[in-house]
Design goal:
CATH topology of the largest domain in chain B: Cytochrome Bc1 Complex, Chain A, domain 1
CATH architecture of the largest domain in chain A: 2-Layer Sandwich
CATH class of the largest domain in chain B: Alpha Beta
Number of strands of chain A: 11
Helix content of chain A: 40-55%
Strand content of chain B: 15-25%
Strand order of the largest sheet of chain A: 1-2-6-3-5-4
Oligomer: heterodimer
Shape of chain B: globular
Number of domains of chain B: 2
Strand content of chain A: 15-25%
Number of helices of chain B: 15
Number of helices of chain A: 16
């Protein structure tokens, strides 16, 4: 123990003064003797290894009556494995300055490992145990279930959470994407050790597995550790994708009453799929409308000129079976109707008049530089490498990306704006006590 | 200058040694309002142009206000460092404050407060705790965003006077991290910040004691609360105020008592007795004035608050009576150091750590010595620090509950 302490103390100083020599992102593709594939960026500027990986199948494939099983299972994977109870498993992580964690999204079961490179054997061993011998002890099931139900309860009172949940329920009504990834209290109470184990067995398979590694590790060492960690997982068939989504065909406003002074508003339109030829035009359109920092039309019109809100922004969301363009703002109950009027006027203005040449040029320089801005930690780089693989991109995508952005023409963005920004497809959710806004009848 | 060539980016952070605790009652909210107005233009840069320019050059920028410091930061490509330095230097000395820009921005500031505080029962209770712990209308006892009545009355002259009093190169710290060199940073800094004249800056004052009528209990029953919370806040020394020799042992104490799921509170309350869903402790020593040692519990469904409070009291008493083991102190030390190593892996957190420390009077030597000082903490020092801080006449207890009859 004392030895570890001295080692860590030396590292803190060593890292802070380290003159490093990394450089551009150089992606190596690895294929191990057992056939595990991974992407690696070697980076000796920090004495650590970060792993980001995921399995096909997420909360949208939770079986009927078991809503929440994937999220609860994911949490419990790092709550004890093999002969190690939850407390012992956690202690081993702390002693190695390692962290193993899992979480579920609508479409995938994700995981991560972070460990000091000097302790990587131990870090990968703990990950192997979590993946292959999770315990699902009944006291941990009870604890995590109670915490999840409490979190659902509290989220039901937090305006931003209520708005986000209501938006998904409204936009995806009748589709599995409408379900809360955390599940429902009723279903959570019914989950057993057996259903959790079955869910783990169904998802923790090699087919559909995607792995990205970043850090101070050699290719051969990574290949050996990946085989040991993932190589014994079975092959199988991932859960079927959710059905196709049919976007809403008419505009709808939903108001959820909450006793708060400020109303939170979200507006959604059907968006653009990641493999759509107009994806890069969509990035530019979103940047002009409400992306980036403080330069967008929504920020300028809602906040700068009128002081109607602290934030006004838009973002593109991509799921396996759907895509959304989501606008977000929050304003005092008395003024939120005016804020929404301004947001809608901006959607109409971009649809009718399109962007200016200057806006297109500014968006392109921002988007070309913005990727580098997000590469500021090994975990972030591993996350990027992971999502590129999930999106089906090639390792050389990073070198092509700038040209793809540069190739977008103003007419592409105009055409896309006319296609997407349609009032008749707009879903509006307002949470609070908004003055002058009412729910549309179903 | 914190070098890293991992990615072709640099981060500039300018920290001013002034925060909301330097305001007076009746004029609260100035530090934060001024932070907003710093984006509203100078003699050479038009309103909103600062962020627009950063954005169209592929960068991002923002700012923050705390009790003791105010920071402005940008992340850009290395060849744009001079551009953001030039703009940052201009608004250090030549901010243009106009009525036209102030009027809508006041509404933005108030909306920010509604979002962060008024819409959140936990945040409202937190403000009440600060007021009880540090004293009504005293530094740290007043909200960072200011009292609404004050913010509504602040005018151009108030902001201009605050700006003139605190914004100057000799009251600022420049931190650059990323893919550049110390020589380059020095050259650019001398060119752009160098010509701005230094001026006399007032000393900052923080009281040496907290509120005079402790202990206090603050309760909030709110229809918007679904899950109850119990918390305890002890007045505590910081690196720079009070018995600061305890500051390192208190970090180890917070970690072993309530840092994560292997900590004493979590093991006893969540794992063994099952009376809580979570439990935590925290202590932040980087403060110009006094700070607090905090702990809290999310009670399990059906556990009465009195039971939680007495369970926590028992655990604190046991620690004082029986002490802590060498092994748990070492584990806590390892966790603190590991967290520090990982935080240096991020280009954002490095400057924040240095800015937070230097902005309240710490030195680079202090930061460099931190691992040794944490590593030198003994079990006896942990208990002595606990005994110093856990005083019955130096605390506020807070309770957040659902409104009667709501559940």
């Amino acid at each position: 123990m004392r030895q570890l302490l001295r080692f860590l103390a030396a590292l803190v100083v060593a890292v802070s003064g380290l003159p490093v020599a990394a450089g551009a992102v150089d992606i190596k593709t690895i294929s191990t003797p057992l056939g595990i594939k991974a992407w690696l960026v070697q980076d000796k500027s920090a004495p650590a290894v970060s792993l980001s990986f995921s399995f096909a199948g997420g909360t949208a494939s939770d079986p009927d009556g078991q809503l929440g099983v994937t999220t609860l299972m994911a949490t419990l994977l790092s709550d004890g494995a093999g002969t190690l109870t939850s407390q012992a498993f956690r202690q081993r992580q702390e002693d190695a300055a390692a962290s193993v964690g899992f979480s579920a999204s609508l479409d995938r079961l994700g995981g991560s490992l972070r460990v000091l490179s000097a302790n990587r054997e131990e870090g990968f061993e703990l990950l192997r145990l979590a993946l292959t011998q999770p315990r699902f002890d009944s006291d941990m099931i009870d604890q995590r279930r109670a915490q999840t139900i409490a979190a659902i309860n509290q989220a039901s009172q937090r305006p931003a959470s209520v708005a986000a949940r209501t938006l998904m329920e409204t936009e995806f009504a009748g589709h599995p994407y409408a379900n809360d990834p955390d599940g429902t209290p009723d279903d959570l109470r019914k989950l057993t050790q057996q259903t959790l184990k079955q869910r783990a067995a169904a998802l923790l398979i090699r087919n559909g597995l995607v792995i990205a590694a970043v850090g101070d590790i050699e290719e051969a060492d990574l290949a050996r550790l990946l085989d040991r960690t993932f190589g014994t997982l079975p092959t199988g068939t991932p859960p079927a994708l959710p059905p196709e989504w049919n976007p809403p065909t008419k505009a709808r406003t939903v108001v959820v009453e909450r006793p708060v002074p400020q109303s939170t508003a979200l507006l959604a339109l059907p968006g653009v799929a990641r493999d759509d030829p107009d994806w890069y035009a969509a990035l530019i359109m979103n940047h002009v409308l409400g992306g980036g920092g403080q330069q967008s039309r929504l920020f300028t019109e809602v906040r700068e000129k009128r002081g109607l809100a602290y934030g006004a922004s838009s973002s593109l969301r991509v799921y396996k079976r759907a895509a959304l363009l989501v606008m977000s703002t929050a304003s005092a109950n008395e003024r939120v109707a005016e804020a929404l009027r301004v947001v809608k006027a901006e959607l109409a203005r971009l649809r009718v008049d399109g962007p200016t040449e200057q806006e297109i040029a500014d968006a392109k320089t921002y988007l070309a530089g913005a990727l580098a801005l997000s590469l500021d930690s090994s975990g972030a780089i591993a996350g990027l490498l992971h999502s590129m693989q999930v999106d089906g991109l090639a390792p050389d995508h990073l070198t092509k990306r700038a040209a793809l952005i540069a190739a977008v023409k103003i007419d592409d963005v105009r055409r896309l704006a006319r296609r997407l920004l349609r009032d008749e497809a707009l879903t509006t959710v307002v949470v609070g006590k908004p003055v002058g806004i009412a729910s549309d009848p179903l | 200058m914190l070098p890293s060539s991992r990615a072709p980016i640099v981060n500039q952070l300018v920290v001013y040694k002034v925060g909301s605790a330097d305001e007076v009652y009746g004029k609260t909210g100035i530090a934060h309002f001024l932070e907003h107005m710093m984006f509203k233009g100078t003699g050479t840069v038009g309103p909103t142009e600062f962020s627009r320019t950063v954005s169209k050059n592929g960068g991002r920028d923002n700012a923050y206000t705390s009790f003791d410091t105010t920071g402005y930061y940008q992340t850009v490509a290395p060849d744009r460092l001079e551009m953001v330095m030039r703009m940052e230097a201009v608004r250090m000395a030549n901010l243009r404050l106009t009525e036209k820009e102030l009027i809508p921005e006041r509404q933005v500031v108030l909306e920010e407060r509604r979002m962060r505080i008024d819409n959140s029962p936990a945040a409202l209770l937190g403000e009440a705790v600060q007021e009880q712990l540090y004293g009504r209308h005293k530094p740290y006892g007043m909200p960072i965003s200011g009292y609404v009545d004050d913010v509504k009355k602040l005018n151009i002259h108030d902001l201009a006077a605050f700006y003139a009093k605190w914004y100057m190169p000799n009251n600022a710290i420049l931190i650059v991290a990323g893919d550049t060199t110390a020589d380059q940073v020095r050259k650019l800094a001398e060119k752009h910040y160098g010509p701005i004249a230094a001026r006399k800056v007032d000393p900052r004052r923080r009281p040496g004691e907290g509120a005079s009528d402790l202990p206090q209990r603050v309760t909030r029953a709110d229809a918007r609360v679904a899950e109850p919370r119990w918390s305890r806040y002890y007045l505590a020394p910081s690196y720079h105020k009070g018995e600061s020799q305890y500051a390192y042992a208190l970090q180890v104490l917070a970690r072993l008592l309530g840092g994560g799921e292997t900590s004493r509170l979590w093991k006893a309350l969540v794992v063994e007795r099952k009376v809580a869903l979570s439990a935590w402790a925290s202590y932040s020593p980087s403060s110009l004035g006094l700070t607090s040692f905090d702990l809290g519990v999310h009670p399990a469904s059906g556990t009465p608050m009195v039971e939680v409070e007495s369970a926590v009291g028992g655990l604190l008493g046991k620690l004082l009576d029986d002490g802590v083991t060498a092994e748990e102190v070492e584990r806590a030390q390892n966790q603190l150091l590991a967290a520090a190593i990982y935080s240096q892996d991020s280009l954002q957190s490095g400057p924040r750590i240095y800015g937070g420390a230097l902005g309240v009077g710490g030195t680079v030597a202090d930061i460099d010595a931190w691992p040794q000082r944490i590593g030198a903490v003994t079990p006896a020092a942990v208990v002595a620090a606990a005994r110093h801080v856990w005083r019955a006449d130096g605390l506020v207890t807070s309770v957040l509950t659902p409104q009667e009859g709501m559940r």
